[in-house]
Design a protein that fits this description.
This protein has one domain (about 45-265). It has ten helices and no strands. It has helices at about 45-55, 65-75, 80-85, 90-105, 110-115, 125-140, 145-165, 175-200, 210-235, 250-265.
Length: about 270
């Protein structure tokens, strides 16, 4: 399929720490690698959490620690890419729904796709209303962690997506295939990132740093994961807009598994 050259990445408007994480602030200067304790704080998470903490404590400059955290997280903490993918739960179905919709937007048009999905009430509305209106369909609100991650990740992706377009426009015919590809890539990246933050970054990124430093850490983490996602989609060797509806979930699982494979084998100093 190729990746979009128009993907803006994170622009600092979406928070590094999702709303469903603990709100207690942590002072970076008083943070030790093992200071986080939650349900996931077992031996298999400790090494990756320690390395991620060092990455944060460096202000995002020590990418080697991020690479080490990534490898340990995928291989030891999650037990490999297959288990990591299965653990995403409802995010797999939500990603499938998103691909189905953007595929329809590109292939048969926005109005027809909205009608086919039972979302005719969104036809004729401004771009921002249409895309934010998709959230309930793609990632309905629920009480489980994976549902919260799915919904928050989609909300973040749509904020980024609409920020580069005319959010008030009702003429949606100008949306390009590359832009729809970018929305898909951003969502997949956000799902993996938010799951990682919940597992090994909970509370660690809430430190007393300045805004520029926080934004830099955010950009480093997003770009790191987004690179793996882009490579994963390229490795599919197919255009996601040409995938049959019956094959979408299989393609989604391949994208996530290959992304985790890349994140689990990326080279870097321990």
């Amino acid at each position: 399929m190729g990746t979009s050259s128009s993907n803006p990445g994170q622009n600092g408007k979406t928070p590094l720490v999702p709303s469903w994480l603990d709100d207690d602030p942590i002072d970076r200067n008083n943070l030790s690698p093992d200071s986080n304790s939650d349900d996931n704080n077992s031996d298999r998470f400790s090494n990756s959490r320690n390395n991620f903490t060092r990455f944060v404590n460096s202000g995002g400059k020590n990418v080697g620690n991020l690479k080490s955290a990534s490898r340990g997280y995928v291989n030891k903490s999650l037990g490999g890419s297959t288990n990591a993918t299965k653990r995403l739960g409802s995010s797999l179905n939500s990603t499938g729904k998103l691909i189905s919709i953007v595929k329809g937007f590109n292939n048969v048009g926005i109005d027809r796709t909205l009608n086919d999905k039972g979302l005719g009430n969104l036809i004729g509305k401004p771009l921002a209303d249409v895309f934010f209106g998709l959230i309930e369909y793609i990632a309905p609100n629920g009480g489980r962690l994976d549902e919260g991650i799915s919904r928050n990740s989609l909300n973040e992706a749509i904020i980024e997506f609409t920020s580069i377009l005319d959010a008030n426009s009702t003429d949606l015919t100008s949306i390009t295939k590359n832009q729809l590809e970018s929305l898909t890539e951003m969502y997949v990246t956000n799902v993996i990132q938010n799951r990682l933050l919940n597992d090994i970054g909970n509370k660690l990124v809430k430190f007393s740093g300045n805004v520029d430093e926080i934004n830099y850490i955010q950009e480093q983490l997003f770009d790191f994961i987004n690179g793996a996602v882009k490579d994963s989609i390229t490795l599919l060797g197919k255009d996601i807009f040409e995938v049959k509806e019956s094959e979408i979930l299989d393609v989604v699982q391949q994208i996530y598994k290959q992304s985790y494979d890349i994140l689990g084998t990326i080279e870097g100093a321990d």
